[in-house]
């Protein structure tokens, strides 16, 4: 049954009643005030289940981003004086409020991302785990004492917050991406101007609504909504405004390279969490069912729309047919389709027609170059305009087909046969990106050898999941710069200051 939420900004009936409709707002948040765009412009946010407009949100320009940066700088001058203990107390209150509003946050994520509701709870809890970890890290931002070089000197270091952080986040897993980035910066003592993806701005707005209730200085967190791809003044302001001391970006490698280049002109510090094209390798000595289970999770969770999703699946030629059979049987048993509001459903549509088009192009390219679909008798009915079912491809070639060079970002599993460890390591490491990789073997020497040889920031050995708040998350090569989560995630927003005292 469909009913309204009671909110005047939600433009469609949905089968969920918000507990707190004030979390739904379509304005930007600058210096503690909720503001429409000065021009009055808005942009649409679509429901991925049917491409119907669900919200219209303030469409800002660089001039308003400039004001948000000024507000963040003013807040920084107050916030940086807070003791670690006070910062920790505030963060603890924010965590408590986010937890209390878990249902509404999950619903907003489902609404604008098309994520099945059960998966949306997972992303809210994953995001919360980072806030909880960062709360503890606040009190571990230690400096060091260093034996002095000169007589009657004493030398030590402190860790200081950097200042205003400009943060840009993608649409996939919006709540977790925002909490992982903004939570670390705030824990370090920085203030933030966040530009969320135009596909999922409402998650950011709801998070800011909860943040507002905590009692941080006005301007500690600002939300600037807008479509930066068609309004370059937003990115320009974030890169060129000298008050911004750190640009923290999560998104595609192409946009990351551009922003990093712009920041480089001012030698502005950047964190870049960019795209991956994860190799997933199944050696001939692997436990095949374990590898299948790992691939189900690494390839198909979130309908294949995570940066660490397996993209190129290398399977030893001798076990290819058994692996493909088991993979197909397991995926058929695992996934339940239907309305994303149904808690039993665990596989949803792609986030947009743009996402669908890319997956379809990768499929067409592979088929035109000799690949075949493993099981053409799909067990799925049409689930809306952006739906793409889990699809297994045989006879794939990672060197000639498009998926080998680009992230598919969808539930297409191209199986590539290989004959030797040397060959597969060459193929796995060829690509310019190096975010995550996975492999399955039961051979202990190979386990260490391959884990060390894979040129990626994260390696999953006999597991399909590689991220958690305790662990550093990030890539090498064109997958980025810096690490999120873990102690490194908070340290990244601090400067080490060396102090020498003559006595
Ligand atoms: P995208 O690069 O198109 O957009 C990401 C963000 O950048 C959005 O907020 C967008 O509005 C903004 N943006 C786009 N052009 C801009 C410009 N010129 N100036 C300023 N901002 C601009 O990426 P996407 O399609 O939203 O997200 C998917 C990508 O993100 C994938 O490549 C994925 O691998 C990557 N990703 C990486 C990680 C990681 O931690 N490494 C995590 C999630 C997603």
Automatic annotation (TrEMBL):
PROSITE patterns: ALDEHYDE_DEHYDR_CYS, ALDEHYDE_DEHYDR_GLU
Pathway: Amino-acid degradation; 4-aminobutanoate degradation
GO biological processes: gamma-aminobutyric acid catabolic process
Record keywords: Oxidoreductase
Stored CDD domains: ALDH_F5_SSADH_GabD
Active site: 273
Domain Aldehyde dehydrogenase: 34-499
Entry keyword annotation includes NAD: no
GO molecular function, a single term: succinate-semialdehyde dehydrogenase (NAD+) activity
Gene3D superfamilies referenced in this protein's UniProt entry, alphabetically: Aldehyde Dehydrogenase, Chain A, domain 1, Aldehyde Dehydrogenase, Chain A, domain 2
A Pfam family hit: Aldedh
Stored PANTHER family: CYTOPLASMIC ALDEHYDE DEHYDROGENASE (EUROFUNG) (PTHR43353:SF6), SUCCINATE-SEMIALDEHYDE DEHYDROGENASE, MITOCHONDRIAL (PTHR43353)
Family to which the UniProt record says this protein belongs: Belongs to the aldehyde dehydrogenase family.
Protein name, UniProt field: Aldehyde dehydrogenase domain-containing protein
Organism name: Trichoderma guizhouense
């Amino acid at each position: 049954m469909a009913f309204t939420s009671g909110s005047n900004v939600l433009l469609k009936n949905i089968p969920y009643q918000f507990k707190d409709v004030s979390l739904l707002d379509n304005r930007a948040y600058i210096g503690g005030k909720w503001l429409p765009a000065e021009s009055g412009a808005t942009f649409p946010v679509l429901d991925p289940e049917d491409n119907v407009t669900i919200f219209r949100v303030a469409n800002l320009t660089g001039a308003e981003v400039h004001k948000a940066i000024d507000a963040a700088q003013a807040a920084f001058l107050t916030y940086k004086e807070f003791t670690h203990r006070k910062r920790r107390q505030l963060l603890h209150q924010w965590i408590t409020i986010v937890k209390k509003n878990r249902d509404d946050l999950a619903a907003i994520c489902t609404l604008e991302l098309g994520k099945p509701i059960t998966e949306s709870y997972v992303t809210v809890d994953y995001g919360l785990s980072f806030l909880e970890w960062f709360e503890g890290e606040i009190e571990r931002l230690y400096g060091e004492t260093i034996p002095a070089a000169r007589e009657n000197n004493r030398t030590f270091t402190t860790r200081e917050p950097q200042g205003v952080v400009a943060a840009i986040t993608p649409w996939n897993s919006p709540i977790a991406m925002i909490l992982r980035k903004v939570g670390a910066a705030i824990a370090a003592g920085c203030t933030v101007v966040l530009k969320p993806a135009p596909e999922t701005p409402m998650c950011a707005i709801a998070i800011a609504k909860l943040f507002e209730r905590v009692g941080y200085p006005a301007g500690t967190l600002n939300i600037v909504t807008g479509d930066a791809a068609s309004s370059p003044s937003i990115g320009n302001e974030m890169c060129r405004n000298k008050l911004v001391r750190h640009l923290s970006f999560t998104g595609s490698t192409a946009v990351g390279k551009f922003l990093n280049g712009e920041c480089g002109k001012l030698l502005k510090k950047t964190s870049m969490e960019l795209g991956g094209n994860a190799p997933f390798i199944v050696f001939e000595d692997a436990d095949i069912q374990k590898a299948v289970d790992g691939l189900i999770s690494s390839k198909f969770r979130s309908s294949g729309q995570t940066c660490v999703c397996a993209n190129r699946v290398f399977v030893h030629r001798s076990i290819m047919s058994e692996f493909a059979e088991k993979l197909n049987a397991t995926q058929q048993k695992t996934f339940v389709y239907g309305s994303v509001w149904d808690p039993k459903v665990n596989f949803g549509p792609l986030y947009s027609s743009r996402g669908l088009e890319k997956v379809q192009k990768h499929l067409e390219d592979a088929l035109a170059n000799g690949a075949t679909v493993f099981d053409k008798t799909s067990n799925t009915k049409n689930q809306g305009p952006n739906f793409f079912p889990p699809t297994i491809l045989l006879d794939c070639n990672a060197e000639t087909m498009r998926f080998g060079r680009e992230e598919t970002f969808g539930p297409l599993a191209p199986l590539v046969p290989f004959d030797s460890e040397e060959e597969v390591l060459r193929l796995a490491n060829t690509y310019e990106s190096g975010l995550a990789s996975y492999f399955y073997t039961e051979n202990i020497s190979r386990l260490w050898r391959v884990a060390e040889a894979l040129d990626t920031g994260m390696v999953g050995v006999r597991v399909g999941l590689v991220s958690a708040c305790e662990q550093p998350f990030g890539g090498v090569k064109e997958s980025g710069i810096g690490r999120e989560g873990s102690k490194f995630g908070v340290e990244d927003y601090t400067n080490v200051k060396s102090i020498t005292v003559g006595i």
